[in-house]
């Protein structure tokens, strides 16, 4: 499915996207970033003011073209599964086929196949009231798949489920997508869900694309201060990037004016002066051997996580968030701290402001 979408009056603008056949693409971002608006425009529930949308080789939205949702060959599952309680499961799943005037005999076979695909074989005569929340969401998924759509659109489709069930359905959804080669666009506010399911992630912020890439790329190499904090819970330190006597970059904090001990600073070659340094939690080591770049931090809080401990350290006048495995640190304990890497982002200039940016230039091409 090829999607090219540029601009609406409802909060999405300068977005150019292409989704490959069989790809699982996740759309994430804070509330109001434009995730659902973009998905609804692709589905046909919102008509963009400008730009084009293609599904395969078919133009479905453009200056002189507009196809309604039922003609776009898409399946969609919402956060609230919208199963009609007065119909049986089979009637719910068959409804899109009735709209397409598929003969009754064919409908029956395709409904049975769709229910078997989502793990509900033989459930045609059951009433929605007899189903669990997870089963009702499976019925909604079967209804979206029964038309054999060109792509599947998921709008927070798992977020209303309890965590253990949601985790199990994530695994089943990933297996289903892989087995059937489905093309999926999945809106979610759950960062872990996006990272675990998606082949690629598109992060939206204020209606534009902030960064796009494979999950491991976005985690290891955020390209903006927003990405470092939103996806990685980075610590952001204000200060200045300067050149040391030996030519290596140093970062001096605004808080103390002193050099912040960092083993490696990554930055654009032209970047210098005022800006911020982002320190990712997994770029910090504690209780290592002391060195020229080692300082002491004091444990301020500790939260247990299945992968270890989420720790906040008082460090060089900053609250530094880090990840620790092994022994649980104690509040008040002092630890040797080595910051292995910091990501420097230069302060924006007037040329970077929206008022002077070229409105015709898309933020992203994939």
Describe the structure.
Helix content is 23%, strand content 28%. The protein is of the alpha/beta class. The two termini are 13 Å apart.
Largest sheet: 6 strands, mixed
Number of helices: 8
Q: What fraction of residues sit in β-strands?
A: 25-35%
Structural class: alpha/beta
Q: Low-confidence parts, pLDDT < 50 over ≥5 residues?
A: 353-366
User: What Rg, in angstroms, do the CA atoms define?
Assistant: 25 Å
**Portion in helices:** 10-25%
Shape: elongated
- Which series of helices and strands comes N to C? EHEEEEHHHEHEHEEHHEEEEEEEEEE
> Between the first and last Cα atoms, what is the distance in angstroms?
13 Å
Side-by-side strand order of the widest sheet:
5-6-7-1-8-9
The strand count comes to 19
Mean pLDDT: 86
Q: What attributes does this structure have?
A:
single chain; 8 helices; alpha/beta; 5-stranded mixed β-sheet
Q: How would the blueprint of this fold be written?
A:
Elements: E1 24-28, H1 35-43, E2 53-55, E3 58-62, E4 65-66, E5 74-77, H2 89-99, H3 104-117, H4 133-145, E6 151-155, H5 163-180, E7 184-187, H6 191-197, E8 200-205, E9 208-213, H7 215-220, H8 225-232, E10 235-243, E11 249-253, E12 265-266, E13 273-279, E14 284-286, E15 294-305, E16 308-315, E17 318-324, E18 334-339, E19 342-346
Parallel strand pairs: 1-7, 1-8, 5-6, 6-7, 12-19
Antiparallel strand pairs: 2-3, 3-4, 8-9, 10-11, 10-13, 13-19, 14-18, 15-16, 15-18, 16-17
Helix pairs in contact: 2-3, 2-4, 3-4
């Amino acid at each position: 499915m090829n999607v090219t979408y540029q601009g609406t009056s409802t909060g999405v603008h300068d977005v150019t996207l292409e989704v490959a056949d069989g790809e699982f693409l996740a759309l994430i971002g804070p509330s109001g970033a434009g995730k659902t608006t973009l998905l609804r425009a692709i589905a046909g529930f919102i008509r963009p003011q400008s730009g084009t949308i293609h599904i395969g080789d078919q133009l479905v939205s453009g200056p002189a073209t507009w196809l309604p949702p039922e003609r776009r060959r898409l399946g969609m599952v919402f956060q609230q599964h919208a199963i009609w309680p007065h119909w049986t499961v089979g009637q719910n799943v068959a409804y899109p086929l009735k709209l397409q005037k598929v003969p009754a005999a064919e409908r029956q076979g395709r409904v049975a196949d769709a229910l078997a695909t989502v793990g509900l074989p033989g459930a045609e005569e059951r009433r929605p009231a007899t189903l669990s929340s997870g089963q009702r969401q499976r019925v909604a998924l079967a209804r979206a798949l029964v038309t054999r759509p060109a792509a599947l659109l998921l709008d927070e489709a798992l977020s209303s489920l309890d965590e253990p069930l949601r985790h199990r359905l994530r695994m089943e959804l990933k297996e289903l997508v892989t087995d059937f080669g489905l093309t999926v666009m999945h809106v979610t506010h759950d960062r872990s869900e996006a990272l675990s399911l998606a082949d690629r992630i598109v992060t939206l912020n204020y209606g534009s694309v902030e960064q796009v890439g494979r999950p491991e790329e976005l985690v290891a190499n955020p390209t903006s201060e927003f990405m470092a904090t939103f996806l990685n819970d980075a610590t952001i330190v204000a200060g200045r990037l300067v050149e040391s006597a030996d030519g290596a970059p140093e970062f001096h904090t605004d808080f103390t004016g002193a050099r912040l001990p960092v083993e490696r600073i990554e930055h654009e070659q032209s970047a210098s002066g005022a800006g911020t340094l982002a320190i990712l939690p997994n770029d910090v080591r504690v209780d290592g051997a002391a060195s020229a770049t080692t300082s002491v931090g004091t444990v301020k809080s500790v939260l247990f996580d299945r992968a270890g401990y989420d720790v906040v350290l008082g460090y060089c006048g900053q609250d530094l968030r880090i990840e620790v495995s092994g022994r649980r640190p104690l509040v008040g304990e002092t630890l040797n701290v080595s910051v292995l890497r910091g990501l420097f982002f230069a302060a924006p200039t007037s040329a970077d402001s929206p008022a002077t940016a070229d409105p015709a230039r898309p933020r992203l091409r994939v």
